[in-house]
Amino acid sequence: MTVDEMSMSNKEPLLELKGVSKVFNKEGKDFLALENVDLSVEEGEFVCILGPTGCGKSVTLQIVAGLIEQTAGSVILDGKEEHGPGPHKGMVFQEYALLPWRNVLENVEIGLELKHVPRRERRSIAKEQLATVGLEGTEHQQVHEISVGMRQRVAIARALANKPKILLMDEPFEALDALTKEEMQIQILKVWEKTGTTILFVTHDVDEAIFLSDRICVMDINPGRLKKVLVNHLPRPRHDCMSRTDKEFNEMRDEIIALYSSLKDEELDLII
Ligand SMILES: Nc1ncnc2c1ncn2[C@@H]1O[C@H](COP(=O)(O)OP(=O)(O)O)[C@@H](O)[C@H]1O
Ligand SMILES: [Mg+2]
């Protein structure tokens, strides 16, 4: 790996994983889910973790989020070693987990309530974040009244309302139909451009990783580990002008597929 691939600049990364491993106990035996992962994310960067199902993407993200503890290695965020969860790490999952008895605005306010932010300020922050994800005017709608794509946007607004240092997204658009998925990819790029939030985004969709990222951490399976970090030089902004049939786009896709040439078909369940 070259220095350029490890890190885009010389300044300290916002997030750093050093030698992170995870061993689970499966049916009485040790199972190595993650082996010695070194990974860094710069402030303001959009980094994708790409790999087939079971390679440890979610485990990596959950370790960063502090939801599970690594067996070895360390996670450093903004210069401090991390232990446990916190509002400075915003999570968005495939299942958006909104509370159905609350309206859109009240769902975005949840984290702020837990931090005892006064009501008026809460409302104002929640409204601002709904506007960031393009949902102005939906504040008083019920969760069941809005589309699945909109629900996922509410989940993003809720995570942003806490002003996280990093947004952690675990296959957030996988449950959506193809068209909505594409709309959401454009939406998240707009949110990222508008807010400057650092994003670590997990996916097993090769095109999604290429469309969104500054860098792609390509993972391997059995055991889960980092295979290669690719710098994505495709020009930005991408949402208006980039076609997935572009030559550069295809070259990047071919490079990624070649990295998986040693995998058996049943292991290669990437969306290509
Ligand atoms: N809590 C757990 N206990 C035991 N094994 C787990 C646990 N969580 C994940 N694993 C295993 O670790 C491996 C990586 O899982 P995961 O990170 O969910 O993969 P993915 O890349 O699909 O997100 C899988 O083999 C999975 O079965
Ligand atoms: Mg997963």
Descriptive overview:
The protein is of the alpha/beta class and 272 residues long. The chain folds into 2 domains: 3-88 and 166-259, 3-Layer(aba) Sandwich (Rossmann fold); 95-163, no CATH class. 33% of the residues lie in helices and 24% in strands. The protein is built from 8 helices and 10 strands. The protein has helices at 3-6, 57-65, 104-114, 119-132, 148-161, 178-195, 206-212, 247-259; strands at 15-26, 29-41, 46-50, 72-77, 80-81, 89-92, 166-170, 198-203, 215-220, 225-231. The strands form 2 sheets. It has a 6-stranded mixed sheet, with helices on both faces. A hairpin with a 2-residue loop joins β1 and β2 (29-41). The two termini are 24 Å apart. Bound molecules: adenosine-5'-diphosphate (ADP) and magnesium ion (MG).
Task: Count every helix, treating DSSP H or I runs of 4 or more residues as helices.
Answer: 8
Cofactors and ligands: adenosine-5'-diphosphate, magnesium ion
Class from secondary-structure proportions = alpha/beta
Radius of gyration over C-alpha positions, nearest whole angstrom: 19 Å
Please describe the biggest sheet, giving its number of strands, its sense, and whether it closes into a barrel.
6 strands, mixed
User: How many structural domains?
Assistant: 2
User: Mean pLDDT, rounded to whole units?
Assistant: 90
Record the strand order, biggest sheet. Answer: 6-7-8-3-9-10
Total beta strands = 10
| CATH C-level label of the largest domain | Alpha Beta
Which residues form runs of ≥5 with pLDDT under 50?
none
| Strand residue content | 15-25%
| Helicity range | 25-40%
